[in-house]
Write a structure and sequence with these properties.
Length: 66
């Protein structure tokens, strides 16, 4: 089963958090919220991260056009 939230560190200082629930248009579920909270706590503990981008997987909702 794929992770509901993925964390990628880009260029040392940028955290990218991806909501990975495209079959539900990345709608919030209790499990996704719990995992998102744990991921955000981990990012907050990393003093090298200056910026965090949150977006959704899939092409329908809450996606990044970076």
């Amino acid at each position: 089963m794929p992770e509901l939230v993925e964390l990628h560190i880009r260029d040392t200082h940028i955290a990218e958090i991806v909501l990975n629930r495209p079959e539900a248009a990345n709608a919030m579920s209790r499990a996704l919220l719990d995992e998102l909270n744990k991921t955000i706590e981990a990012v907050n503990m990393d003093k090298n991260v200056y910026c965090t981008v949150i977006h959704g997987a899939g092409g329908k909702a809450f996606l990044c056009r970076c």
